[in-house]
C-alpha cells in the first residue's frame, strides 16, 4: 500500500512538470530557431546570397556615391551591408533588409528604361 501511494505521488508530482515543461521548451526552441535563422541569413546574405557580378555593381555604385571606399570586391561583406544601410538610413528608408529596392533604384541599378516596349512604326500611306 505504501509502495502504491509512493508511485501515485511520484506520477502526480511529475504531471505538472510535463504540462509546463513542453511549453517552456517550445518557447526556448522557438527563440533558438529564430536566432539561428537570423545568424544563418546574415552569413548567407554576406557570403553566398548575392552573385559576384551584382555585388560588384552595387559596390561600384556605393563607391561612386561616397558610401563605400576602396575597390569593389564582388563579395557582399559587412562593409557593403553597412554602406547600403547608411544609404538607406540617409534617405529615411528601412535599414534591416539590404539592399532595399529603393536604394538600388537610387544607385541607378533598378529596372531599366529599355524594358519599355519599342515605339511602333507607322506605315506610310
Number of β-strand runs: 0
Main beta-sheet strand count, sense and barrel state = none
Following the backbone from N to C, one meets helices and strands in this order, namely HHHH
Domain module count: 2
Roughly what fraction of the amino acids lie in strands? under 5%
Structural class, please?
A: mainly alpha
Helical residue percent?
55-70%
Tally of individual helices: 4
Low-confidence stretches: 16-21, 40-47
Specify the overall morphology: elongated
Radius of gyration: 28 Å
The termini sit apart by 112 Å
Mean pLDDT score: 74
Describe the overall structure:
The longest helix is centred in the N-terminal third of the chain and has 46 residues, at 2-47. Residues 16-21 and 40-47 have low confidence and may be disordered. The protein folds into two domains: 1-49; 50-110, no CATH class. It has helices at 2-47, 52-64, 78-90, 101-106. With 125 residues, it is mainly α. It is elongated.
Amino acid at each position: 500500500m505504501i509502495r502504491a501511494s509512493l508511485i501515485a505521488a511520484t506520477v502526480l508530482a511529475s504531471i505538472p512538470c510535463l504540462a509546463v515543461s513542453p511549453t517552456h521548451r517550445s518557447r526556448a526552441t522557438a527563440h533558438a530557431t529564430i536566432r539561428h535563422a537570423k545568424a544563418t541569413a546574415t552569413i548567407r546574405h554576406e557570403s553566398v546570397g548575392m552573385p559576384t557580378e551584382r555585388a560588384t555593381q552595387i559596390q561600384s555604385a556605393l563607391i561612386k556615391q561616397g558610401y563605400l571606399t576602396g575597390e569593389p570586391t564582388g563579395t557582399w561583406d559587412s562593409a557593403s551591408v553597412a554602406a547600403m544601410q547608411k544609404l538607406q538610413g540617409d534617405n529615411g528608408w528601412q535599414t534591416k533588409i539590404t539592399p532595399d529596392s529603393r536604394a538600388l533604384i537610387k544607385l541607378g541599378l533598378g529596372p531599366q528604361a529599355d524594358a519599355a516596349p519599342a515605339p511602333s512604326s507607322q506605315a506610310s500611306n
